[in-house]
Amino acid sequence: MNKVLLGLLAALGLAIIVTAGASAAPPSVIGGGPASFAAWPWQVAILNAYESDRYLAQFCGGTLIAPNVVLTAAHCLYDSDGYLLDADDVDVLSGTSLLSGQFGDRSPVVGGIVSDASDDMSNPDDLGVLWLEHTSPLATPLPPATFAQAAAFSVGSRVTVAGWGVNRVRGNRGYLPRKLKQYAATVRSKSHGFLFIRSLTATGCYGDSGGPAVGRDAAGSPYLVGVVHAGLVRCPVGQSMMFVNVAAQQRHIQGALATGPYPDDGAGPDASIALARSLPFGG
User: 20: pLDDT confidence band, cut at 50, 70 and 90?
Assistant: First the structure.
């Protein structure tokens, strides 16, 4: 398998060395704090299927949006040469906030619909829907926001972001945590299909791509409002990050769910399944 993208900003060709082994990490921390599984039962990790160590295998995040269905960033599902990964290149871990240990459920991907990724990071269609063979019974889907939940992602609203991406950067080296991290942030603006979200004390970084920004509607119910898309080089705290505006893509998400996991030939689970370029994203 070709080397998979490491997530946030990887499509821009930024060279950061990602180091496993947080015990050797320097003291400069990109903020945030530990996240409990109870607070993030919909959070999943996207894994390299050929790496048995879940900590080493994780390269992006995602959100369970329906039973056995995950929403993530499309750019996570292309290799460094721009080729779409096969379904059997990817596993998904659900039901845990820990990459180490044996908690949670690791499932193969059986199919997907992914937008046509490009080097143009201004493309707001950066989404992929993945179908899993199974998920943890502890995992709970989070509904994607629609414009009916506009209060959950209006300018000035508070959201929370979580991921297993780099949480320490020094020079060109990044260090990855084993436990899910989270931080609170504010929607600063909306433009061209993106939410620009900022925290003054924390930020997402490499490996957080595809992960969720969660907002709450007027009744306090949680919704998936954003999918991590990109941020600035070296992940500076206090600067806005770009998230795909989930509500703006709702028609495409629902179209993918209606199409199902075998969009290429309809042959079912015995077919050779590839993550499909055959949209409905980008329409």
Answer: low
The CATH H-level (homologous superfamily) assignment of domain 10-20+40-141+249-263 is Trypsin-like serine proteases (2.40.10.10)
H or E element that contains 131: strand 128-132
> Rounded to whole angstroms, how far apart are CA atoms 86 and 200?
38
C-alpha separations of 279 from 114, 229, 257, 276 in Å:
6, 18, 11, 7
Radius of gyration of the chain (CA): 17
Least trusted range by pLDDT, from 84-93, 134-143, 181-190: 84-93
What is the architecture of the domain spanning 147-248? Answer: Beta Barrel (2.40)
Which amino acid, residue 173?
Answer: R
- Of 148, 217, 176, nearest to 8 by C-alpha is 176
Residue that has been written with the tokens 């960033």 in this structure: 73
- H or E element, residue 56: helix 54-57
